[in-house]
UniProtKB/TrEMBL annotation:
Signal sequence extent: none
Taxonomy, superkingdom: Bacteria
Family: Belongs to the ABC transporter superfamily.
Keyword ATP-binding among UniProt keywords: yes
Keyword match ATP-binding: yes
GO molecular-function terms, A-Z: ATP binding; ATP hydrolysis activity
Keyword tags: ATP-binding, Nucleotide-binding, Transport
Name of a matching Pfam family: ABC_tran
InterPro entries named among the record's database cross-references: AAA+_ATPase, ABC_transporter-like_ATP-bd, ABC_transporter_ATP-binding, P-loop_NTPase
All copies of domain ABC transporter, residue ranges: 19-256
Protein name stated in the entry: ABC-2 type transport system ATP-binding protein
Amino acid sequence: MRISFYFNQREVLGLGSIIEVKKLKKSFVRKGGKPINAVDDISFSVQEGEIFGLLGPNGAGKSSVIRMMCGLLTPEQGDIRICGHQVKNNRRKSLRHISAVLEGNRNLYWRMTVKENIAYFVGNRGYSYRQIQSDVDRLMKQFKIEHKEDELVGNLSRGMQQKLAILISLAIGTEAILLDEPTLGLDVETTEELKRILVQICMDFKKTIIVSTHDMKLVEEICDRVVIVNQGKKVVEDSVENLLDLFRTKTYQMRVKGGKISEEVFDRIQSRFPWVRFDAENRVYLVNIKEGEMFFPLMEVLKEESVSLESIETVTVDFERVYTTLCERNFKDVIHV
């Protein structure tokens, strides 16, 4: 179930694009001298007030995109604009609108206390700790780390460190927050807490959040829209609901009396309907239908072959299946990318 359900169906502000990424390219050279296209012609936009997912497996190019958005890497081609400012030519103005929580909590100083880290990073943005102390106190209570104020960051759990990094990104007051693999290494309980915090941030603080991750459940449960990348290329960009609906309405699960159709009969069925397959583990038949009218001829053939159905139901789809299918097959005739 999508977490936004618990927050009274959060609405995106819809005030236009806050980040525009156009035709981004970046390559790296391997030890043997052969270049790798880490980011290959990727474009997408992030709307103000939404939680946007950048989803892909390890090595897909997600972190490289995030680092280019933060100005830590220079793209070979392409353009990034944040609140209308071009990162390449107006780095200071553009980066004033975003803060980043990089993978591995590398944006915290472990030999400084929680309070010292907050004071240092807000100071870098031109604020004194005294100016934002009331906001920080409120955030520390909300994030349940007020009792750790004088603790060295190196002594905190990974979950506490992650919450502190996000707290700092809120305290410095940017419109957008970039999170690179925010749930990596967290236990289940902390991950669930972090999901709720991120959705609450969008509600209470009207922030835009970009999440780079390989965690499909995270994207499915909290993101409004997603761009899927694989091997440096964009596979698709759409709302999470649209991608889920695409498969939910086209996949059915059939149980037959006796548990299984004979091989001879099934071969005849599959010769006409190759999108029917048998799930041996669950002893059900999965029917992937691209066009609604194809379902009825299948029913006629089953009747002709004397196949009796016990049940037929729509498959409950999760984002893992959507992601895997999109990466393995070409759906450009179905989805506009």
